[in-house]
Amino acid sequence: MKTTDMDVRQIRVFLAVAQSGGFSAAQDVLNLAQSTISTEIAALEARLGYTLCKRGRGGFKLTPQGEAFVTDATELLSALSTFEISVAKHKKQGLGDLRIAIIDNLVTDPRCPLIGAFDRFHRRTGGRAHIYLDVLSPREIEQGVSSGKIDAAIGIFTETLPHLQYVRLYRERDVLVCGHRHPLFHETSDTRLFSKIRNAQKVVRTFLKLNDFFFLSDQHNSITAHVDSVEAAAVLILAGSHIGFLPDHYAQRWVDRGEMRVMVEKSYTRQSDITLVHHKDPSRLGSTAKLLIQELSGDTSDPPMKKSKVAN
Fold it and tell me: Which of 9, 11, 253, 304 places its Cα 20 to 30 Å from the Cα of 106?
């Protein structure tokens, strides 16, 4: 027979009766009156053309055809369940994959638009995109975007590649800090600090290409540590072996606890452009990537990137 939605409903009723051992026992399972159950089973038997079970004073009992039908019906409903799960999975992933990368420790900056953008993106897509979000160095980010392994990314880039699009999102402010174990932590004289800072051992973020210590002209030998992340720089600063620049929002937790101090803030501060990067070729971007780029760049119109400004 050709199976219809009504047949499937009646099959479910019959299997519940068979598994419960009778009509009365199946009432609670199905939340149906016994008369309704009896009507559904009778309709199924009429559709099949044979009797599935005996019921009456002698009790409930499956016929040989009924026993065979239980096996076949169980297999059918199992296959339907597998099908429904698969369809739901495809619906959840209907917008495809979104591959995003960011540099480390952006989340503590209230100026960072990433969290708000993801919130709006999730609501606009109904959660139907599968997101891969990685924390990488700027060099790894540019390599990934260039190769197509990453759709879009946020980072600090001191140089630009011609085939990539760079959109400045906001500026991050860095302050010069030392840890409470460092000799400069308790220095009260700004004059002495100026003198001692020049010779103190320093940690720099490699991707900034020494731009963090812009005031050095002849003291590059004081740079004795190179790192690719803010967190790695913080480890050396907290250890007391080095001084260095950290984003103000990131350092604030240790400053508040008295484990770091900001040194000569009026003189030693710098800014980095936090930039969105993606491939210039629109054919390299999927619909999900274009949607998130819209949200990050503050443009929800079509086409994507209409209002974006490229940082030079």
Answer: 304
